[in-house]
Amino acid sequence: MQDIKDHLFDEIEDEEAVVVYAPLVLRTMIMRPRCLENLMRVMRNINPCLMVVMEVEANHNSPSFVNRFIDALFYYSAFFDCLENCMKHNKYRVIIEDLLRKGIRNIVAAEGSERVARSVKMDVWRTFFARFRMVEMSFSNSSLYQASLVAKKYCCTTLDRNGKCLIVGWKGTLIHSLSAWKFR
Question: How far is CA 127 from CA 53, 64, 73, 145, in A?
């Protein structure tokens, strides 16, 4: 992401609408702040109509091993319980569990630059986005209604709000945040 430059987006027409979707990407750049800030500068210059961000809603960035371990224990316990309930006989469950295994190993066993993903909670992202003069946008009532219909399908899924952000959880444990942003 450090190599991303404005000229790569020269093909965007002035009247063209651009939306950026960033699912679980920004957390991989926390340890490379120059890359993250460069990405945000380029995004600001592109000036998308909207930037939708989905991130892990947990603090896996603590320098304290014990704090990271405890947070990861609760987070991944909820995630595995969700898989057990929602994907009991799904053939893709093993693939997802393998990805989660790699995530656990990254958080608990890796240190320094080897620890690639460093999740932080929405309040940290809000502070970061404010530095780039971004404002949080509300989701429409229609989209919130659609989200509630999907959540009702899975009895233990919880939907909460943190400001204008939507928080998806499992049995009370926060799993992901979904937020929408716009540059001022």
Answer: 14, 22, 26, 28
Which 8-state DSSP code applies to residue 140? P
Q: What tens digit of pLDDT does each residue of 106-138 get?
A: 999 998 889 998 999 999 999 999 999 999 999
Cα distances (Å, whole numbers) of residue 39 to 30, 91, 136, 149: 12, 36, 18, 34
Half-sphere exposure of residue 115: CA atoms within 13 angstroms, side-chain side: 18
Q: For residue 40, how many C-alpha atoms fall within 13 Å in the half-sphere facing its CB?
A: 21
In the prediction, which pLDDT does 29 show? 93
Residues 178, 3, 129, 136, CA torsion sign: negative
Nearest partner of 99 among 83, 122, 123, 120, judged by Cα: 83
Q: Distance between CA atoms of 156 and 174, rounded to whole angstroms?
A: 12
The interaxial angle of helices 65-86 and 93-109, nearest 10 deg, is 170
63-93 confidence digits (pLDDT tens)? 999 999 999 999 999 999 999 998 989 999 9
Question: What are the beta bridge partners of residue 176?
Answer: 56, 168
pTM of this structure? 0.89
- Cα 27 from Cα 7, distance rounded (Å): 25
